[in-house]
Amino acid sequence: MTATTSPLGALLDPTTLAGLPLKSRFVMAPMTRLRSPGGVPTPEVAAYYRRRAENGIGLVITEGVLVGHPSAGHETTVPRMTAGPAEDGWRRVTDEVHAVGGRIAAQLWHLGGARQPVDGIAAWTPSGVPGNSHPMTLTDIDAILAAYRDAAGVAVRAGFDAVEIHAAHGYLLDEFLWPYTNRRSDRFGGSPAARAAFPAGVIRAVRTAVPATMPVIVRFSQFKERDYAARIAESPAELATILDAFATAGADVLHASQRTFSTPAFPGSPRNLAGWATHLTGLPSITVGSVGLTRDFLRSPALDDLLRRLDAGEFDLVALGRILLGNPAWVTLAAAGRLDDIHDYRKADEETYF
Ligand SMILES: Cc1cc2nc3c(=O)[nH]c(=O)nc-3n(C[C@H](O)[C@H](O)[C@H](O)COP(=O)(O)O)c2cc1C
């Protein structure tokens, strides 16, 4: 199916992202699935990602993968990026995705204050907010930078094509970006530039552990999982300060997480958050948020709007999240106009795994 006859248009075109060739402009958004007992991705996990890669997804981004520090997360079925069985499991995943011409990025994750205190270890946060969490010392900061560096090294050995740093949704890195949770008075808190210093340090640490040619993607958001109205940047100028710090530290691609891709990021312009990211930094960006959730999307003005924004260079790639849970072949089917074989997203799809 060519771009001219499919409703998906230029989204089906091969492209390159920071030098990485991709078979389409579709990304699989990172989605936590809790299917990796002991932190080790199973053959079922490899088959799950392969199924999306062989059905038109150019770049798979894994679910959040915990870096190897006890404070990163406690959930035992969330995968980890550590040497040993987890690395072997990830090698199987990257082999399967590559076997079908796909590319795959590992999303590195530290839950910060969203981690529950377990075994007497409190959650680690910038300033002890939310309450009962442990405000990170400078020594703690160094330990987490080392954990990210080590995890990136494991990702390289396991065959990943790229690394994504999760700095969105209210988890540790975003807690540094957000003034509500970052009340530090040292060089890691205060102005937007200071709040960006720790996430930028993580980017630098990851950069040192991966080849110069490997794309480093940074995912960020205004909203928090527990506060949709929260913001890290009140204006384009504040956002520019934060994203410039990411770019200087070595970010190659910005992944701007929004709940709906068409929502303007700031008053006075229709540009979305990914659009602002590219506009302010010149870096390629990924947009996401409510793309394709219903079958009707494929014959709606919303798809026209998405394609028009892509054509205008607002962003480079489009991520699909929930629709891929129950429709692993969504891109293939939509490209062929086989709408009857697609079903709308339903919450119950989150309980399935295939
Ligand atoms: C079940 C589920 C798990 C998710 N887990 C993650 C995650 O681990 N990391 C992340 O950055 N976003 C995560 N997200 C957010 C998605 O990546 C995506 O941004 C969101 O679902 C919006 O895209 P959509 O409307 O296409 O689903 C998750 C979303 C869902 C539904």
From TrEMBL:
It comes from the Bacteria. Residues 11-339 form the NADH:flavin oxidoreductase/NADH oxidase N-terminal domain. Gene3D superfamilies: Aldolase class I. Its cofactor is FMN. Keywords: Flavoprotein, FMN, NADP, Oxidoreductase. The keyword NADP applies. One of its GO terms (molecular function) is FMN binding. This is 2,4-dienoyl-CoA reductase. It comes from Micromonospora auratinigra. The lineage of its organism: Bacteria, Bacillati, Actinomycetota, Actinomycetes, Micromonosporales.
